[in-house]
């Protein structure tokens, strides 16, 4: 019984094991650049993970391409430019300011201001209607009061 439990636990641990990448670097600077780049580039599939933490196929391909470009002598900026050209601005955590990104930042503020304006304008309309109703009601009450008072005089 114990033997079967150990076999089951061992088999389960094999399914949890992730493949480990072994990369050969030409120099320590290349390795440092590689580690920096894979931490800075975002996985297009996972969206919240960088390519260093992602096990997605596209992240594996991006890591391989990053290493390949560094071995070709490309700088970190050139590697990032290649990735942006290939996958879009999304792969960087600090995308450039474009009309689309400005719109993404400004639209929530505009929607909040529009909502506040809408609430205030509806409140003013409601108050104006209530004022008209209270004036009409007080006129009717005044007429009834005058009628009652005039009855007492007769």
From TrEMBL:
The keyword Cell wall biogenesis/degradation does not apply. Possible subunit of a heme lyase. This is Cytochrome c-type biogenesis protein. Pfam families: CcmH. The keyword Signal applies. GO terms for biological process: cytochrome complex assembly. Its main location: periplasm. CDD domains: CcmH_N (cd16378). Residues 1-17 form the signal peptide.
């Amino acid at each position: 019984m114990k033997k079967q439990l150990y076999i089951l636990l061992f088999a389960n641990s094999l399914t949890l094991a992730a493949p480990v990448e072994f990369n050969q670097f030409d120099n320590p600077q290349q390795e440092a650049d590689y580690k920096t780049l894979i931490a800075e580039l975002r996985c297009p599939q996972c969206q919240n993970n960088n390519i260093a933490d992602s096990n997605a196929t596209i992240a594996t391909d991006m890591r391989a391409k990053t290493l390949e470009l560094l071995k070709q002598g490309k700088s970190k900026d050139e590697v990032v430019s290649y990735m942006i050209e290939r996958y879009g601005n999304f792969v960087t955590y600090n995308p450039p300011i474009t009309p689309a990104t400005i719109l993404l930042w400004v639209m929530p503020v505009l929607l909040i201001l529009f909502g506040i304006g809408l609430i205030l304008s509806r409140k003013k309309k409601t108050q104006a209607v209530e004022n008209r109703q209270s004036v009409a009601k007080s006129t009717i009450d005044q007429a009834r009061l005058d009628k009652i008072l005039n009855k007492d005089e007769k």
